[in-house]
């Protein structure tokens, strides 16, 4: 019973004595929001009733009705009254407190709002003052005026600082109402005040916050305060930096990345981004801006602009015009060109074998991309050992024209072929003199005169046809005419009067470059002018280095290489590309600077090209993609020359329906990166004289990337062609298999009109397609519904036999019409 009573009492107290709860909350100094007040109000309103009905009805009506059983009525009454009185007092007190607190809260709010407004004003004033100060300071700097002005400018921020220092004193203001509060409230207020600035910041928010609940406000104001302090500190720091600022000379190239600009000015990137935003340019720190914009920014920050041209870094590579007396003759550089299989490689080998191996007994010839031979009369000739047009064109496209003479090989038993014409055009475009080598003259079918006549059509008039182009009949197999060919070259070279100054900083062109496992990056360089020596510091394309060793075409280490001498250069920091120009510089710093600059420029260029691709070509590509299938491939080769030759061959594969797309090509082993790229695009990897490393092999196996190895370019090209052919949609070919004449037309129930026909040609097949021809005009094309021979449905009817035919979904058939019967077949096509 008493248990029961206790529970009920507690429960009732919980409901009826909410003000009490509020009171408790106050004592902890936590709750103080309107919601609580509202609740209290709500409690206060029912309270008068509650005091009568609640305390009397709730307790006396409920519990007391049971209690009297245990306690005397008088005792119970007494207790009840006491409780009621206490309750009433409590409620009255609470109501009073609520009213008090509300009044105080309002007062506080008002004051806080006032304080906030005041503070805001101060802040604004402060900011205005600071901006003014900054402005003045800038003006001061720009004009470089007297110290007087500087003092004035320095004085300006001082008043600005005053309001800031006043801030803390401004804050206590809202605290003034506190004494009016009850001691407990005063405590709470003090506690809040102790958080200091919070109060001030919060006061404004509280007015709003009161409506939504105050708990979050305190956190927010704390954070806000911290931010504010942080800002103040930063401002103070920024101000100091600015005052001590060093005016810098900022080297400004044609385009500069924002972060780099910040770096060069020794300013914060964020400030620059901000300035740019103020100028209406939304850029991130990693974006490049043009020099004009950058100049504005540099000036705004009070630095000096030093415009540098992109090419300035390269100025150290002096364009020396050699004096005539310094020039000495140099060997000619010869490239052999011609149609495939006309014997370029054989001829190169024949010349080399005849002149090098014979001359240097036991000498190991080494393929380094070029070699030198001496003619019988002692003239030295340098041959580029990379036959074909790829090397020639890719070199030229990089601005390295190394070839002095082109030997055009045409097979005497063949004729002028497409690549012969291409070679002629290349030579003409490069304004390089040509010598025609009519090869394979040992063959019975050889007809040199036919070749000469054909060349005429392409404006190559050989000497035998009273022109100026030397022609020599040779055979790479028998060696016939080789000496005459070399003589012709020597003569041509004499006419050209090739000269170079060997006594200057060397310049050369990369013929081939590769990453050698043992030796690191190796480049075969054909020295064009000057002399390249061991220990020379150089820049080559985007790479640089110091000549660690020079190796000639015979595999011997040499100390130096003069004009027209091909050498392998060791000591590079990376693999350059064929066609890159090598320049010797004075210091390593110069070499590095140039190389880095070029790498940067190349990156920018690629990025620009990439952007152009995405923007311009996206639509074009989307359009093309509708009807062009692409076969993506990755090419890795042992040397740059091969890689480029393969890429060029790949570009030629395909037609307007199918295309080969070389996603990436490079020199060196197939790596995981290649496999990743291949996987992403569903491309096979073509390795030419290179292999995949172990991890790449594993990844390829896991991801199902196909890696194919080749050592003959034509095998590779053939395979790609076959694969690309697979992408060609099969051609649908129609074969007419028969004709039938309609003799009569019957109507058959359940079938419709049936043509009584005579198969006049070939065969009528049920499964075949049919066309209805009337006066040789196709009036319907479709399928047969039925093919009957007498009463039976049959598969086919031979020529000369009669049959009944009915069309599917068509019955406008007349006697005299002709039915054409055809079959379709899919023909796989190949690329030629
Ligand atoms: P490339 O594709 O122009 O480099 O031609 P190659 O040097 O590979 O030669 C193609 C084919 O022609 C090879 O089978 C050679 O053996 C053959 N060949 C090259 N020159 C001669 C020649 O002077 N006489 C004969 N009979 N065959 C030759």
Automatic annotation (TrEMBL):
Skewed-composition ranges (Low complexity): 149-164
Record's GO cellular component terms: cytosol
Compartments where located: Cytoplasm
Feature: compositional bias, Basic and acidic residues: 87-148, 184-202
GO MF, any single term: GTP binding
Statement: the UniProt record of this protein carries the keyword Nucleotidyltransferase: no
Function: One of the essential components for the initiation of protein synthesis. Protects formylmethionyl-tRNA from spontaneous hydrolysis and promotes its binding to the 30S ribosomal subunits. Also involved in the hydrolysis of GTP during the formation of the 70S ribosomal complex.
Alphabetized NCBIfam families for the sequence: IF-2 (TIGR00487), small_GTP (TIGR00231)
HAMAP family: IF_2_B (MF_00100_B)
Family classification: Belongs to the TRAFAC class translation factor GTPase superfamily. Classic translation factor GTPase family. IF-2 subfamily.
Name the record gives this protein: Translation initiation factor IF-2
């Amino acid at each position: 019973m008493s248990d029961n009573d206790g529970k009920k009492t507690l429960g009732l107290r919980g409901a009826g004595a909410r003000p009490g709860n509020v009171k408790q909350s106050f004592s902890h100094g936590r709750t103080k929001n309107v919601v609580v007040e509202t609740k209290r109000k709500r409690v206060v309103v029912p309270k008068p009733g509650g005091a009568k009905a609640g305390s009397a009805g709730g307790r006396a009506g409920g519990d007391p009705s049971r209690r009297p059983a245990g306690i005397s009525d008088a005792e119970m009454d007494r207790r009840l009254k006491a409780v009621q009185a206490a309750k009433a007092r409590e409620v009255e007190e609470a109501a009073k407190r609520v009213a008090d607190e509300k009044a105080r809260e309002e007062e506080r709010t008002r004051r806080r709002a006032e304080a906030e407004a005041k503070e805001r004003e101060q802040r604004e004033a402060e900011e205005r003052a600071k901006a003014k100060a900054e402005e003045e300071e800038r003006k001061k700097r720009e004009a470089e005026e007297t110290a007087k002005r500087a003092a004035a400018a320095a004085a300006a921020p001082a008043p600005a600082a005053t309001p800031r220092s006043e801030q803390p004193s401004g804050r206590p203001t809202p605290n003034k109402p506190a004494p009016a509060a009850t001691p407990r409230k005063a405590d709470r207020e003090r506690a809040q005040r102790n958080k200091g600035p919070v109060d001030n910041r919060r006061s404004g928010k509280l007015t709003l916050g009161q409506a939504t609940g105050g708990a979050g406000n305190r956190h927010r104001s704390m954070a806000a305060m911290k931010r504010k302090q942080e800002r103040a500190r930063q401002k103070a720091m920024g101000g100091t930096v600015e005052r001590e600022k060093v005016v810098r000379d900022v080297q400004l190239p044609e385009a500069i990345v924002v972060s780099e600009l910040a770096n060069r000015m020794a300013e914060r990137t964020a400030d620059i981004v901000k300035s740019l935003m103020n100028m209406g340019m939304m850029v991130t720190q990693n974006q490049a801006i043009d020099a004009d914009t950058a100049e504005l920014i540099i000036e705004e920050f009070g630095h000096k602009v030093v415009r540098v041209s992109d090419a300035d870094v390269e100025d150290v590579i002096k364009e020396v015009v050699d004096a005539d007396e310094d020039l000495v003759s140099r060997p000619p550089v010869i490239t052999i060109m011609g149609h495939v299989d006309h014997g370029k490689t054989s001829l190169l080998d024949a010349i080399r074998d005849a002149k090098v191996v014979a001359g240097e007994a036991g000498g190991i010839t080494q393929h380094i991309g070029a070699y030198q031979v001496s003619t019988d009369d002692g003239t030295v000739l340098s041959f580029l050992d990379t036959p074909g047009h790829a090397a020639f064109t890719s070199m030229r496209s990089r601005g390295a024209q190394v070839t002095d003479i082109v030997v055009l090989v045409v097979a005497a038993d063949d004729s002028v072929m497409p690549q012969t014409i291409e070679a002629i055009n290349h030579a003409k475009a490069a304004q390089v003199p040509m010598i025609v080598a009519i090869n394979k003259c040992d063959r019975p079918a050889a007809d040199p005169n036919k070749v000469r006549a054909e060349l005429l059509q392409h404006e190559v008039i050989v000497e035998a046809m009273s022109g100026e182009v030397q022609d020599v009949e040779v055979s790479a197999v028998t060696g016939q005419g080789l000496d005459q060919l070399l003589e012709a070259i020597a003569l041509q070279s004499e006419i050209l009067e090739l000269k170079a100054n060997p006594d200057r900083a060397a310049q050369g062109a990369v013929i081939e470059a590769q990453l050698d496992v043992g030796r690191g990056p190796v480049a075969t360089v054909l020295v064009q002018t000057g002399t390249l020596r061991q220990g020379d510091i150089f820049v080559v394309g985007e790479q640089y280095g110091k000549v660690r060793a020079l190796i000639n075409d015979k595999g011997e280490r040499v100390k130096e290489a003069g004009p027209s001498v091909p050498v392998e250069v060791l000591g590079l920091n990376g693999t350059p590309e064929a066609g890159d120009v090598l320049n010797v510089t004075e210091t390593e710093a110069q070499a590095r600077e140039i190389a880095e600059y070029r790498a940067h420029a190349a990156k920018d260029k690629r990025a620009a090209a990439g952007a152009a691709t995405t923007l311009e070509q996206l639509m074009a590509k989307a359009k093309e993609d509708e009807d062009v299938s692409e076969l993506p491939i990755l090419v890795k080769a042992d040397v740059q020359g091969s890689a480029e030759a393969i890429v060029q061959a790949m570009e030629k594969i395909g037609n307007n329906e199918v295309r080969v797309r070389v996603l990436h090509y490079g020199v060196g082993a197939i790596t995981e990166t290649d496999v990743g790229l291949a996987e992403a695009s569903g491309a096979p990897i073509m390795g030419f004289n290179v292999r995949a490393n172990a991890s790449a092999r594993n990844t390829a196996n896991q991801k199902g990337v196909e890696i194919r190895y080749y050592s003959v370019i034509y095998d590779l090209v053939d395979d790609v062609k076959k694969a690309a052919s697979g992408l060609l949609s099969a051609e649908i070919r129609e074969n007419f298999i028969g004709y039938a004449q309609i003799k009569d037309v019957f109507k058959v129930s359940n079938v419709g009109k049936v043509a009584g026909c005579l198969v006049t040609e070939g065969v009528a097949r049920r499964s075949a397609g049919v066309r209805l021809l009337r006066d040789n005009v196709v009036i319907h094309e479709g399928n047969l519904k039925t093919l009957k021979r007498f009463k039976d449905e049959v598969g086919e009817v031979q020529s000369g036999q009669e049959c009944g035919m009915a069309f599917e979904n068509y019955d406008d058939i007349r006697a005299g019409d002709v039915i054409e019967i055809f079959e379709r077949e899919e023909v796989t096509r190949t690329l030629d």
